[in-house]
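Last lecture ended with a question: if I hand you only a sequence, what can you say about the shape of the protein? Today we answer it with a concrete record. The protein is Fucosyltransferase. Below, first the input exactly as provided, then the predicted structure, then a couple of comments.
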Amino acid sequence: MPWFPKLALLLIALPVLFIVVLICRDKGFNPMVAAGLMHDSSQPTSDALLGGLLAPDIRRKSCLSRYQSISYRKSSLHKPSPYLVSKLREYEKLHKRCGPYTKSYKKSIKELVSGQIDSSSNCRYVVWLANCGLGNRILSMTSAFLYALLTDRVLLINEESDMSNMFCEPFPDASWILPEDFPFMNQLYSFGRDYAQSFGNMLENRIINTSTELLPSCLYLYLSHDYDHHDKLFFCDQEQAILRNIPWLIMKANIYFLPSLFLMSSFEEELSKLFPDKEMVFHHLGRYLFHPSNQVWKLITSYYKKYLAKAEERIGIQIRIFDNKTSPVEHVMDQILTCTDKEKLLPRVDMGKSIVAPSGKGKSKAVLITSLVPYYYEKMMNMYSKHPTLNGEVVAVYQPSHEEEQQSENNVHNQKAWAEINLLSMMDVLVTSAWSTFGYVAQGLGGKKPWILYKIENKTIPDPVCGRAKSLEPCFHAPPVYDCKAKREVDTATIIPYLRHCEDIYWGIKLFNNGFIQSSIRKQQQIVTKLQRFNMTWFPKLAVLLAASLVLFIVFFIWRDSELDAFTDIGLDDDLSQVAGELTSDKLLGGLLAPNFTRRSCLSRYQSISYRKSSRHEPSSYLVSRLREYERLHKRCGPYAESYKKSIKEMVSGRIESSSVCRVLLIYEEADMANVFCEPFPDTTWLLPKDFPFNYRLSRFKQKYAKSFGNTLKNNNKKISVSTEQLPSHLYLYLSHDYSHHDKLFFCDQDQIILRNIPWLIIKSDVYFLPSLFLMPSFEEELSKLFPDKETVFHHLGRYLFHPSNQVWTLITSYYKKYLVEAEERIGIQIRIFDKKTSPFQQVMDQILTCTFKEKLLPQVDMGKSIVAPSGKGKSKAVLLTSLIPSYYEKLKDMYLKHPTLNGEVINVYQPSHEEKQRSTNNVHNQKALAEINLLSMMDVLVTSARSTFGYVAQGLAGKKPLILYKIEDNKIPNPVCGRAVSLEPCFHSPPIYDCKAKREVDTATIVPYLRHCEDIHWGIKLFNST
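The predicted structure:
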């Protein structure tokens, strides 16, 4: 039957022809669609709709990428929750009803212009304003959209020319573009951080609060990287209650602030239902919102098909360098090759051979490099095109563009950048640069956890060079550090279990699925490397540590509260096995520390006992009880408490109520001291609030300040004396090293009577003036009960007050575990030279060696022999050396590295940093300086430099009497070169020399038996136990 095959062919052809007709009728014939995708049927599948994220009722021709992207990216393993899908559909209806040019929108615009709010209106808006580069824009738009979703608002985008034709419209039958005839369009461009009508500034100036009845119809929100404390109150539930009633919010943002929305209790339940998988927030919202326009999509698909489609594996490498000086291209190239080799992403090549003709037999890999410069592409392309790989793989390298510099205001540049982000998201494997929002967007759209190239700093390649991201989420680079409920600063990465610090920026926060865990070994090693790599400062503000302890002292004596609370064990848990279990007396330092802190908020508080030897000096039971009393007082009177607010009103008015009974210690924390210490008192803060009425005056307060206590006494001002009835509400006390005779009258009982009745004392100090308090009869009995052991005042108060922040504690423990923990003995040598001319390097080096040999701390070496290989048989000693310069470390290290010791001991020498000069106004360096002080305090033996407050703090925290290197003067090494400290206490360098009773000058080291001159400064005084 010859006609049968023809019939069969006809039967097959007819249905195919029928389908073609349907497709062409529905779509028209589009060559891009015709050449496109098999799944591109009349109804998008669940995959094409990204598991329900996308609405099916948007015309495909208007946005080809919306339903085609699934063919270029692998299907996501992460499905959106049904609740998120339903909320998106609800939002789309709201946007359609309230969006631009609708009746509701026009009505709302009229209300906006008139300033009248119609409470019956169901339409409220968030207007997003652009700021910074494309990655930042996409992440901040996503954050703004989630906020709109949570608060039932409509998101509108102020699309400037540099963003035109970049994205498809995300919502069906409506636009998210702010119309050009928006009434306040001209004002949008002038809106910045200092804009008077911003929410933050209005809060700061008390123009708006929760009780304000007549609210504005429009409010500006500044949520960019340089926002201030009051701007950040946006993340507090109380302030959100104000915003809820304002129809128009105009938001300028350039950060991924979305993680902080998870800190707000008002959003907590809703967010849990929307995102049960916390690591997928941007993955879902980013793929829902951001679809390349047809113009950009054509760039993407053309490039993909031409260069990448045929490869068996595709690797994306995204390179972003923030500082070419500290991250030279050669270093970055070495880092990339080391990472891709170590993680087996790319093969090595045989540099001794050349490729004659491509074999084409091995597995094919395509490498897509994105960078502003062509260097990395050219280097890698030449390597793989000229030399064969060791495993036979064939590697082709591509780079779509190299713009040389970022041009965020150039539309064509932004379109290319958007194309490259999407191409990266289509790769099988991703390698991204630390801190880069460009990389964050690519990994989020692709749904792939990348390998992160850790940041190179000071031309030092980090070790390890890279690591796998543990969460897919982007990092919030500038999170708030404020607990809205407790009204105090806090590490927001410790409040809820699924918010932790980022892998690439230790101060940033991001969303994770798992609860809080200790940093991985990789992260510890990274931070250790940072500690070595960065030059560490030696901040003179350490004197502030000492001053703070003794100011707290005055607090004890001027005001006493007799209430006593019982200790409460709240069942703290900790992830480190060394400190797990109950808080024993050792962990509470003999009762010094209160047990009612959450351990995660300050790991060092209860962990330090595992690194320092237990103290032989127990605090008195009276001191312990007084500390608990003080904590209750501070909680009742501290910042944001009712008593504090009342006292502030009295201060401003100048009226003093005799019933006021608050005297607590508050610290004026400038930026250089931020995140250095934990809060020392439970359930409150010791930080002076930024809205303190006279904040602006504090920086101007100096020795010659006319209104200081000393100058007021000097000028015989009748406004202040023992008999004065109307005293001021506050007074300035100048107690720094250059203070005058009248300032020193602070240490006289008669003048303390005046101060006792003044509510606010503002003290500027840089000295350890505590010993002089022991000269005052009014404090004598109390001090005897508090400190029967006179030599341990700072030892107890220092360990009570000063606990390194989690950030600093990670530096400390990481360095200790990597370099110091395995030694049988640890020796700390702290070197501080005040005058290089009178104390030349070689003489100081000779002094150190003479002292350590004489005291048998370190062994001598056989200079006539060289070490061929370490024996490893003798006792091991680790020497931790801290100094501003590397010369002492290099000399000592070379000596023990090259020559054998006479007694067979094995000596390893370490120096975490060498800063060359002091930079005490730099916060990062102050954090690292505190890390070094704590490391010194963990040593078995200490050698310190005379007159150094840095050494005083280390010996006090450790509870060890150091060997003091006496000061070299006039180029002469002293004899003896060093001596053991007789007392553990720090030295008061600038004591008063006035007898308040006799009203004459006197040597104050002769008045009471437990005050004598210091071992290292003959005019200083310090506390001793015996005469």
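Comments.
1. The longest helix spans residues 3-27.
2. The longest strand covers residues 364-370.
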